[in-house]
Amino acid sequence: MTYSATVQFLYGLQQHGIKLGLETVRALLTRMGEPHRCYPVLHIGGTNGKGSTAAMTAAILQAAGYRVGLYTSPHLIDFRERIRINGAMIPEDTVSRLVETLRSAAAPDLAPTFFEFTTALAFQYFADCQVDVAVLEVGLGGRFDATNVVEPLACAITTIGLDHEAYLGSTLEAIAFEKAGIVKPAVPVVLGRIESLTRRVIEQRASEVAAPLYCLGREFQCDGPSTADCRYVGRSSHYDHLSCPLQGRFQLDNIACSLALIELARERGLGVSEPAVRSGLQHVAWEGRLEIVAESPTIMVDGAHNPAAAAVLAGYLADWRRGRPGARISLIVGMMRDKHPREFLAPLLSQADTLILTQADLPRASTGSELRTLLQDCAPTAQVAATPADALTAAKRSAAPSDLICVTGSLMLVGEIKALLRGCSLSPVRG
Fold first, then answer.
1. How far apart are alpha carbons 52 and 48 in whole angstroms?
2. What secondary structure letter does DSSP report for 344?
């Protein structure tokens, strides 16, 4: 198949929906010769922060001289963003070739979902390219996520918050139980900023399987005035004056989790020097999280889509406003129908001078009008724009050069805005 036809095939797999479970992906990987067992793995889950933590960890390992596979989801613009080696996306012709191989392996009796198929594709690509180590971001939950077939050197759970309740449960404790499913016998676990009640759920799982547990604020921490100048103190490492380009004080926690993982990886045979730690952090890139994509006015995109991430974004916007008296903030928001717009916007409305509601180009996205109906009592002056392009045009029309336009509520919306600004087309596979 051509690459275009391959992507259309992958898009068609979304008709299978989301099926949590490991039987199909295990069977497919067995037929492929178990490529996921060809290299050591670091496995990272959590509600928020897992993508940034994975990107930092991969960047540090690459700076240490390793050939590093990085598997993340979702992508923003190009499907190939999900599967990278040393920062380079998987080539188009390789996607087409491996998809054909996996289709043959799945026939006639396996019907993998989009995410199961993509996960197997990443594992096979990493094996073919003989990576030294792979960094894997959990897709959804943990216990039944397709990535959870690995036996990692170490794993991390960054945060626990309400998200994907239809699949993971309606309480923080239920969600913590699902995410704790990545904890394996005797495999050390890094825990980020997690409240005591939900932490106990993970501690119980770790105790049952004799997995050593290392907690932020207890065995390791990262502090400082900003990510541009911070300090890490861990079990065996102490670094002063670290610098990371990712914005937001919340990234200090992600730096801490990444460096704790690096410490554990080092104890298990992956040599990583202090210069590699400093260089990796200094050069890490992670799109769509407090990312400035244009100036005059400033346009920032942030993929926050749940209440916990919205609270973090609201804190950043409050800091931004304090440093720029008189500047205005316009919010462009689009969300999926399974999210909670009232709870999401609760911490953000006080920071927004203008709110524009729109719809990402996906069937499961709420329309701007649907969002306005849900928000009519708490955001009665919200505007509606039919498309992200219309929303961006409206926001720019009323913005002064010193103002901020913040696009948030969905990584899918963030991807569309970034594609608009780049003048490029989106991959049709976006789940």
1. 9
2. H
Rounded average pLDDT over 189-215: 97
Among candidate residues 287, 286, 274, the one with its CA nearest the CA of residue 63? 274
Residue 183: HSE in the Cβ half-sphere, 13 Å Cα cutoff: 27
Question: Do residues 127 and 38 make contact, with C-beta atoms less than 8 angstroms apart?
Answer: yes
Average of per-residue pLDDT across 57-72: 98
* Cα–Cα distance, 277 to 63 (Å, whole number): 7
Half-sphere exposure at residue 361, Cβ-oriented, CA atoms within 13 angstroms: 17
* Helix ranges, 323-364 (H): 341-345
Cα–Cα distance measured from residue 214 to residue 14, given in angstroms and rounded to the nearest whole number: 37
Residues in the chain: 431
pLDDT in tens, 132-155: 999 999 999 999 999 999 999 999
What's the rounded Cα separation, in Å, for the pair 202 and 232? 24
Most distant CA pair in the chain: distance in Å?
A: 64
Chain segment 395-418, per-residue pLDDT in tens:
999 999 999 999 999 999 999 999
* DSSP secondary structure letter of residue 426: P
Cis status, amide bond into 297, omega within 30 of 0? yes
Six token digits for residue 12: 């068609």
Q: What value does the mean pLDDT take over residues 100-120?
A: 96
Statement: residue 424 has pLDDT above 90: no
pTM above 0.85, yes or no: yes
Q: Concatenate the DSSP letters of all residues of 77-90 into one string.
A: S-GGGGEEETTEEP
Which amino acid would we find at residue 17?
G
pLDDT in tens, 217-257: 999 999 999 999 999 999 999 999 999 999 999 999 999 99
Cα 403 to its chain centre, rounded Å, is 27
What does the alpha-carbon distance between residue 265 and residue 173 come to, in Å, rounded to a whole number?
29
Alpha helices in 273-429 (DSSP H): 274-283, 307-322, 341-345, 368-374, 388-398, 411-422
User: Can you list the domains of the chain with their CATH numbers?
Assistant: 3-283 (3.40.1190.10), 291-422 (3.90.190.20)
DSSP of 128-165: HTT-SEEEEE-SSSSTT-GGGG---SEEEE----S--H
Residues 291-324 have pLDDT tens digits of 999 999 999 999 999 999 999 999 999 999 999 9
Q: CA angle, corner 82, sides to 174 and 31, nearest 5?
A: 80
Burial level of 109, CB count in 10 A (0-12/13-18/19+)?
Answer: exposed
Centroid of chain to Cα 269: 27
